[in-house]
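User: I'm new to structure prediction. If I give you an amino acid sequence, what do you actually give back? Let's try with this one:
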Amino acid sequence: MERRYFVYLLASKPRDTLYVGVTNDLTRRVFEHRLGTGTGFTSRYHVHRLVWFEIHDTALAAIQREKRLKAWLRQWKIDLVEKSNPEWRDLFDEIALG
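Assistant: Good question. You get back a string of structure tokens that encode the predicted 3D arrangement of the chain. For your 98 residues, that looks like this:
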């Protein structure tokens, strides 16, 4: 089985607080954010809506991309989300249900 790695963006609501993360299990990790486990930031600011993600073949590629995104200006992240998800839909159900 081929391993996949994900870089993802969570939002509290459209165009509001954003969080960038990386994981090898996107469904599990977003669920953990929703439960309030893991980082205190997502719990404190209610950042639970999965609004964007991309898949990488290696952990190194995903980590490098995450670091680049974290250095981006906020508006660039908003533009990235709106390019593929202009309604800021929560994508969690789509990935959880397969």
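You can read the tokens as a compact description of the fold. Here is one thing that stands out. The beta strands are 5-11, 18-23, 49-56.
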